[in-house]
Amino acid sequence: MRKAFILAALALVLTGCSGNWGWYVVNPTTPSGYNNVRFLLSGLQYTILLSATAISISIVVGLLVALPGLSSNRGLRWASRTYVELVRAVPILVLVLWVYYGLPQITGLTIGVFWAGVFALALSDSAFQAEIFRAGIQSIARGQYEAAYSISLNYRDTMRYVILPQAIRRILPAIGNQIVYMLKMSSLVSVIGMQELTRKANELVVTEYRPLEIYTFLVLEYLVLILIVSAGVRWLERRMRTDER
Amino acid sequence: MRIEAAVRDDEPIILFDNVFKSFGDFQVLKGISLSIAAGERVVICGPSGSGKSTLIRCINGLESYDAGHIRVAGLALGTDDASRRAVRGKAGMVFQQFNLFPHLTVLENLMLGPMRARGMNRAAAEEIARRYLDRVRIPEQADKYPRQLSGGQQQRVAIARSLCMEPGIMLFDEPTSALDPEMINEVLEVMAELAGTGMTMLCVTHEMGFARRVADRIMFMDHGEIVETAPPERFFSAPESQRCRDFLQKILNH
After folding, report:
1. Cβ pair A146:B113 closer than 8 A
2. What is the three-state SS of B145-173?
3. Nearest Cα residue to B205 out of B41, B5, B26
4. Hey, what domains does chain A have and what are their CATH numbers?
5. For residue A6, what pLDDT is reported?
6. What residues of chain B, 87 to 106, have a C-beta less than 8 Å from chain A?
7. Given an 8 Å threshold on Cβ–Cβ distance, is B97 in contact with A150?
8. What is the ipTM of this complex?
9. A-chain residues within 8 Å CB-CB of B146?
10. Assigned CATH topology for domain B14-252
11. What is the mean pLDDT of residues B156-163?
């Protein structure tokens, strides 16, 4: 079974190499190929800016949603739970469309594609971040709170200096996952005309009729971006690993 | 040792008046009344589940109580955060499991309270941290992380961390129960030394040798009540209640 699969894959690659691929569209040594590559790469800054802004906001909002979820007050817990369950239930693409086309009809304000994208991505991701933070904070032993309270720290300082630094070390891999996920989901914002990587690729395909090469190039663009992010998260994990047993 | 100005000499530093506490249907404290004078050293013992840990945890507000009154260092201890924090500044607590902050170095563990709760600057906090690290005799471990220390050393750091708040009262909740036998003495040594400074100490422990040597009074608890209170020599030689005699029989003849 596995052998057959490998053979099939090999056959595909070989036939691909035998002339059906047209790499010239993205060959930077030719003037038109060079222009195409530049065109494709010009979406990079928007993908990065969009994802980075959205993830920064969603981490902060996620934490702010998670904390009341851990409160002894039932109303606060309920509010946090409701936010998570509602927001998490909406598909990102639907949220992007709703925020860009729907929301202005309520608010009367037109909102640019960039901020519509940031808003939709951050909102969606914040529910997941909240769950990650909740799990991380809940994993810290009761004794850590008691020790902090015993030296007279208040709730805020206990969270800031004792609980969160430990919780964040534990949830770093999960947050890394979420960053990777957000980077990929930013491609959905192409549907409202955001000039990021996927949108650029779509536009080039329309003029060059070479979807195979251009989308393969797009896949590689995301792959490189995400490998860089992964390496960054690993580096952070290593740097923060002072307290592991 | 400095004693809180608000406390008159004749007022007990810890006062329980008919304190009740339940966990669900289980009544842990059944009308506890007690009075401890400043500078007194009291050991609390009793079988597990007798309520001794709960009692000591009530003193600095780690447990709330259902009925009765508690006064600590001249302050009424309610169930609100403000009165709890005020009392916690006067009463330090040492735990069975040390509960050091694993992501901070020893020195940072010690400096956190002085900086965040007492409003000291870094230099003042470091000075006080080093002074108390000296006091528990491990100044050379200042820059290590807790996991790099032995259990006995970790517990001594925990004691120093509490002392950095310069409390008038120290509470110990089974401080040697999680330690390997060969490390128990180094911790008891530090505690005995502390007892010699005039610190008010309350200690839940099964270390009867320590109790005999250091305590002014021993309280025996069973089923949420203080069954008997006596100075060590009388407590060990002539316990009044049958429950206390049974308990001593069990822990002394093994």
Report:
1. no
2. CHHHCCHHHHHHHHHHHHHCCCCCEEEEE
3. B41
4. 47-194 (1.10.3720.10)
5. 75
6. 88-89, 92-93, 95, 97, 99-103
7. no
8. 0.92
9. 243
10. Rossmann fold (3.40.50)
11. 97
